[in-house]
Amino acid sequence: MVLAQSTPEAADDVAAPVVSGNGEFLMELAVGTPPVSYSAIVDTGSDLIWTQCDPCTNCYKQPTPIFDPSKSSTFAKLPCSSTLCSALPQSSCGSDGCDYLYTYGDYSSTQGVMATETFTFGGNKVKVPKVGFGCGEDNEGDGFTQGGGLVGLGRGPLSLVSQLKQPKFSYCLTSIDDAAGATSTLSMGSLAGPTGNSSATTGLIQNSAQSSFYYISLEGISVGGTGLSIPASTFALQSDGSGGMIIDSGTTITYLERSAFDEVKKAFKAAIDLPVDNSGSTGLDLCFDLPSGGGSGDIKVPTLVFHFKGADLELPAENYMIADSSVGLVCLAMGSSSGMSIFGNIQQQNFMVLYDLAKESLSFTPTQCAKS
């Protein structure tokens, strides 16, 4: 991508610490000169990089100080003629530059002015100048409050991956069962990866109708060693751009096309010898009552394998069964969708996930991410 007025210098290899939040994962970075540290949701399902900015018209309470661009010597607003302004799904030309509105699938949104800044990445203190980002002055969404913004890692020109021109990146998401504060790393360039003999590798698919997403080819699912009767076409990307499955670090649980999820749900009900909880109290589709006085460790759960094209990915039980002894329930961390399916972040825990955009491949390598 050639970017007028604001091109990051030579693409440095970047590493940033990643910590687990409540259903999200956040990377630690800093913006401006002098650098102001904040944490941002890691999202492969969108493109825009943004942080909350003063003066705010509608900002939520964030854990770190809100960025004040007037105190940075490297802040510059993007002109309406810039390539990044043109790449926005919704923008307008304000009195002093490019105004944006960016919305997400859960109806959350950020609105403000597009600018460039120097970003500092905490893992190896690499400074990257002139990164295009959204200076958010009106930000709405319950999921945002764990950090000060979001870093889009999608395929589109606005994303960090595209702006740094990095052909490879990887992350390793710690388990929700790990101790609070457990960190792992998001890496770009030569630092990304590695893969090994235990890696499961499948191809990435591009969809011109949804060009930001990373599509993967899911061909089937097995529960307890038995393949489910799900037609292969269920997860196929359709000629009109609908359907298919994407991998998304910013979505918590996996969502499967409804008919496929019904088969998975039926198989888990048959395999787990516990009463089904019908209260709906957790918001998840399938939960079971834990035995009174018993822990979740004693429960026999069936194996779960996702059969991607060229790669059979067997998940650890903690990547799909979530127990909460305080309410006496254990639940399947999956749900149903209509149309597009999503491979969420709980299912990606304790795998090194490597995106190789030169090879158009995605690799999963079992890894204790808190120790990596």
From TrEMBL:
SUPFAM superfamilies assigned to the protein according to its UniProt record, in alphabetical order = Acid proteases
Molecular function terms from GO: aspartic-type endopeptidase activity
Question: Pfam family example for this protein?
Answer: TAXi_C
Keywords, A to Z? Aspartyl protease, Glycoprotein, Hydrolase, Protease, Signal
Keyword Hydrolase carried by entry: yes
The entry's family comment says: Belongs to the peptidase A1 family.
Q: Which PANTHER family match?
A: OS04G0448300 PROTEIN, OS07G0603500 PROTEIN-RELATED
Q: Can you name this protein?
A: Peptidase A1 domain-containing protein
| Taxonomic classification | Eukaryota, Viridiplantae, Streptophyta, Embryophyta, Tracheophyta
